[in-house]
User: Fold this.
Amino acid sequence: MKRTHHNGTLRKEQIGEVVHLVGWVAKRRNLGSLVFIDLRDRSGIVQVVFDETMTDAVKEVRSEYVLEVEGIVQARKDANPKMETGEIEVIAKNVNILNTANTPPITIADDTDSLEDTRLKYRYLDLRRPVLQKNLMLRHQICMITRNTLSEDGFIEVETPILARSTPEGARDYLVPSRIYNGKFWALPQSPQIFKQLLMIGGMERYFQIARCFRDEDLRADRQPEFTQIDIEMSFVDENDVFATVEKLMRNIFKGTINYDLEESFVRIPWAECMRRYGTDKPDLRYGNEIVDLTDIFEYTEFQIFKNIQSEGGIINGICFENIADKYSRKNLDALQDFIKHGFKAKALSYLKMEEGGLNGSIAKVLSEKEKEEIIARFNLKTNDLVLIVADQAKIVQASLGALRVRLAHENDLVDQNQYRFLWVTDFPMFEYSEEEARYVAAHHPFTAPKAEDVDKLFSDPEHVSSRAYDLVLNGYELLSGSIRIYDQELQAKVFEAIGLTLEEAKARFGFFLDAFQYGTPPHGGVGIGLERLTMVLAGTENIRDVVAFPTTNSAMNLMSDSPNVVDQKQLDVLGISINKKEEDK
Assistant:
């Protein structure tokens, strides 16, 4: 037989046609003289009917058998509106059992109750679930739209090395030993960062790559040890050029995959303002409830705790949620207090509820009437509104209230799941202080350009130097990170000096890369877009493993292939490697 149609594409327009189908048995129902089989392929499911002349041919057929069926399409008497093929069925005339199957160890359906570890062990079966197949097809669509969009805009796709030199980029490298050069190692790239900048020096002007990246770091729900980024670099550009390119790409991806129209230009907020308003540099803009500064209200307070905080250089901020105060009992509020104490080292959480007679709550009795009136006015409080207040050092206050903002928005169903809000976060700090190294280090990477107006503060006030780095945030996820790069040799030397690196030390670390800068480097900048995170958001899942074909667990184990694993001693001998177990493994 030769397949004539994909199962999920059949409709009432095909009624009366003879079709040849193939696929897996998703479900079998035996009604005596009739056997109904739901036949599944990648496109979907169609119901096949085997009458009394055919029942013997399928009497042994069970779930996940592979069948080849010839039949005639007819209208179903009892249409099933839950199936895309629910208006028709196929009356089988011939069947060929291509292969049998053992009883699967997992439930192969979107609504599966199988444990995730079991599904990961039998991932090749898990991949038969329609939801995972749709996610991988969505990922494919994103890649194709990316290639078409960027190609039309003059970008060329270039592959960069997977085996490269180890360079410090923040996370730990995965190392690969060399057999030929005994005792030396390659590293798998954390990103194509150095190579894409070298392509700009090489005159390619507009490059992109759907690039595999590797980082040996602790994992979480939205991170894998190997991942893919849509890598873009451009010469002779500034931030506006980069933003325009990315925004066009996003508009095309969202329109082409889920038929969603994005705004013409995305919101931009400087990093410092973002932290003040949302307590995070990746805020979700689908709801409001911004952080409000209350410090000035308590300038002359008699409340000793707030007075002490201010004397120590701390701040007092709050957030308000409308019409939810009655949902939060003392027990619920204590849970929120534990949440910020243990998670963010906050000293305490104060709360106020707006009631008919005025403010009530944990600190209502110690506040003056003037302070209460100013709080009511600042938040424009109405009956049943809830105010949460944290007084502490700025970083703790922002992190605590930012996390509470997210938690309460989700607890109270304030998040519109059908909305997509993008945000450019700009002007990130150039440096951050490393307690471990007792010096300032590059917050992004040492090739990120500082803002021109802050160059004179590189040595005198490094804490307040802003960079030309930027992130694109989507619904609370950091979707991409990028920057305008340093291309001037003198400025690069100053930045190295600011982070405590001599030119000799920098050359020892970055060698060939810095040599290339001597031969006419153009102004350039770019981004790396997280393909998995973008696919996650478009697919409506919060688990990155749902958009990766063969993912690992949170402990970086691939349960299906049982890797990583030991290798033969002969292989180690060839590489000149001996294994010394770490103390905790002994």
The first strand starts at residue 18 and ends at 30. The chain has a mean pLDDT of 94. The CA atoms of residues 183 and 576 lie 7 Å apart.
